[in-house]
Automatic annotation (TrEMBL):
The keyword Membrane applies. The keyword Heme does not apply. This is NfeD nodulation like protein, probable membrane protein. Coiled coil: none annotated. Residues 27-176 form the NfeD1b N-terminal domain. Residues 242-364 form the NfeD integral membrane domain. One of its GO terms (cellular component) is membrane. It comes from Thermococcus sibiricus (strain DSM 12597 / MM 739). Keywords: Membrane, Transmembrane, Transmembrane helix.
Length: 451
């Protein structure tokens, strides 16, 4: 009886526990795309933590980056080293890259895989832009530091130290076949399923929780970590080109808003754009002095609009604007950038283009603004009394009308509602607000004027 009871218990455990054990193989997959910023570290930390909580067999990071900030990159590598699950960096999709900072992150991973048509390498550090717009090369001591750092990552993982050193000294980038043959990566895979099949049974190149782990990826359940709305938006904002364009467009919108009395859309949109740009530049690493110079340029432009100096403030604003724009991505030793040179070349082109457009805008637009302001000063508010307008936003009793081709805040004289499209006549002014009645209504003591 005792023997029979033991057999039954063993059979019971085998029947009920075997399926549970079979379902325990789980692999998480997450995507990291765009510039490497402090927010990228937040993403890595969140994704790895999710895999750790589920006790996953591994987490695969789909990486496609031109590089980014060195401090963020180092924090990400430290997080990978402390991970309690294997972290596989997979350079994906075809056409993607792990350049500059992305290469370091890959070399700090437990396993590296690449999709066909991708590249890895080109890690020479730069310090940003000088005030004349040229790229600031990192001094030899900085180059030597990163050369030593990347070699130490390769040595710790048993990868090719000589080849990875060329990523810095020669700014070399290589394709998957050369990377595999030279011992820089471990797997070339067409997709995630192909990667799981090829990497199954491989040992990690870096210890996990103090020991090298054989990857158990056979028949693993794949769980994709979907990016949040913030994850989707922040990479666009932290793209330095996008953040810079948002900043300049926001400035233009503010200036136009100040020149359009009674219509608050440009100011509102401009303020939102500037806030988003500051968030993006903050993640990328903006320089406070550059931002202050751009703010000063805005003050110059507004001063030109309010008190025309026939170009003096415009020239001052243009100079401070260009200098501030360059300093946003300038050198000075605060931050080392491990980012492709193409990114900085694009930024420089955008700065020159927007600066030229800004100069043209004020060169040709300010004459019209000055003329309009002089005309307004000569006529006075009495010129408005008796003119006709059309309601473009219902007056109930306040809204908007169009008079003399301009939008004005207006209020119904008798407090009654006036609908869109109705004709009205101006009978009074309170500051910049027009007091109106319907076109055919009479108003005592009105000095009628026909136009």
């Amino acid at each position: 009886m005792v023997v029979m009871r033991k057999i039954l218990i063993a059979a019971f455990l085998f029947i009920f526990l075997t399926p549970a054990l079979a379902q325990a193989s789980v692999v998480y997959v997450a995507q990291i795309k765009g510039e490497i910023t402090p927010y990228t570290y937040d993403q890595f930390d969140r994704y790895i933590s999710e895999a750790e909580r589920a006790n996953a067999n591994a987490i695969i990071i789909l990486l496609d980056t031109p590089g980014g900030r060195a401090d963020a990159m180092q924090n990400i590598i430290e997080r990978i080293k402390s991970a309690e699950v294997p972290v596989i960096t997979y350079v994906y999709p075809p056409g993607g890259m792990a350049a500059s900072a992305g290469t370091y992150i890959a070399l700090g991973s437990h396993l590296i895989a690449m999709a066909p048509g991708t590249s890895i390498g080109a890690c020479r550090p730069i310090l940003g832009y000088s005030q004349n717009g040229s790229i600031i090369e990192a001094p030899p001591k900085v180059v030597n530091f990163y050369a030593s750092y990347i070699k130490s990552l390769a040595k710790a993982s048993g990868r090719n130290e000589t080849m990875v050193e060329k990523f810095i000294t020669e700014d070399l980038a290589i394709d998957p076949e050369e990377a595999l043959n030279s011992g820089v990566i471990e797997v070339i895979a067409n997709d995630v399923n192909d990667l799981l099949e090829k990497a199954h049974g491989m040992k990690t190149k870096v210890p996990v929780r103090g020991e090298y782990v054989a990857l158990d990826l056979e028949d693993a359940e794949i769980r994709y970590l979907e990016p949040s709305l913030k994850d989707r938006v922040i990479p666009y904002l932290t793209d330095p080109a996008v953040a810079y364009v948002l900043l300049t467009l926001g400035i233009w919108a503010l200036v136009l808003g100040f020149l359009s009395p009674g219509w608050h859309v440009p100011e509102t949109v401009g303020a939102i754009m500037i806030v988003l740009a500051i968030i993006g530049l903050g993640y990328f690493g903006y320089r406070s002095a550059g931002l202050l110079l751009i703010v000063l340029a805005v003050i110059f432009f507004i001063a030109e609009a309010l008190t025309p100096t026939f170009g003096l403030f415009t020239v001052a604003g243009f100079i401070t604007f260009v200098l501030g724009s360059i300093m946003l991505f300038g050198g000075g030793g605060e931050v080392d950038y491990l980012v492709s040179r193409e990114v900085y070349s694009q930024i420089r082109l955008i700065i020159i283009t927007i600066g030229a457009l800004l100069a043209l805008f004020f060169a040709f637009g300010m004459a019209a603004v000055i003329k309009a302001r002089r005309k307004k000063a000569q006529t006075g508010k009495e010129e408005m009394i008796g003119l006709f307008g059309e309601v473009v936003e219902p007056l109930s009793p306040e809204g908007m009308i169009r008079a003399r081709g301009e939008l004005w805040r207006a209020r119904s004289k008798d407090g009654k509602s006036i609908g869109i499209g109705e004709k009205v006549r101006i009978v009074e002014m309170e500051g910049l607000k027009l007091i109106v009645v319907r076109e055919k209504e009479k108003y005592p003591n009105e000095e009628s004027k026909m136009r």
